[in-house]
Protein: Glyoxylate/hydroxypyruvate reductase A
Amino acid sequence: MSARPPVLVDIKFNPEGVARVLKTAFADRGSINLADPANRARDLGDVEYALLWKPDADLFQRAPNLKAIFSGGAGVDHIIGMAGLPEIPIVRFVDRSLTTRMSEWVVMQCLMHLRAQYAHDISQRQRQWAKLDAPEAAEVTVGVMGLGILGQDAVAKLKVMGFDVIGWSRSRKHIDGVETFDASELDSFLARTDILVGLLPLTAETTGFYDGGLFKKLRRDGALGRSVFINAGRGKSQVEADIVSAIREGTLDGASLDVFETEPLAADNPLWGLENVFITPHDAAVSEENALFRHVEAQIARFERGEPLQFVVDRAAGY
Structure:
């Protein structure tokens, strides 16, 4: 057995896939998978690195000597604010595959609303031959909120599809060929937006951010008529009761949601039954285990060579 302390893994998704990949990951030091019942009571005092996704509440008490924490996904809100969180680097998962999957989902949802796919679905079930006259992508403005790695890739691919794309972030980002807005220009950004795409991280400022008041500020005289809301960022950034009300009252024409306030989405949630609402079970960009573990191995190697870690979270900003 290696004399180097093993990597602690506490990931609350795809336990079979995690266990399979861990057979060959971290070959130089091994790992402790807390999903394995045999490890539940194991002493974690010598662990230096932890890979986490929604970890156990007492984890940092059990592993007091950590040097770095690695998130099992792009978000870190499941770690920030945990009791006993040590003052050590927290590293986000950034990977080409994860970024590409997210952009695929965003583009797909925008196209489905552009071409009124929900109406075609209804016609198909009713065996009706009902043609629709849809606008071109160039006639529709997609406003992307959150211009990090995921947001900028989505912007680029939406532009390839021909959409008019604008972007918003708390502090202004400069993207060639894209008009961007900052926090002080939120209302101007919303007034231009036909399809609102949410890719914001979850912070104190973004909790409950997408609410009825915000939806009322979206454009209502564009090529789509009423606007559409798409969210693949964080579920707690949206007020689901307001989404339901906005669709029923005609403020929004529809929505595409991959994240929810509580997951899984309850069977009696009214979102399930609304027309022109597309629901996916938080799988727009699932972390692929091989890529995730390669990412952590590479970051640990950098750290132990004395090089700076990449994708470190700014705790003051929350992402």
Remarks:
- The mean pLDDT is 96.
- The chain is about 30% helix and 15% strand.
- The domain at 97-279 is CATH 3.40.50.720 (Rossmann fold).
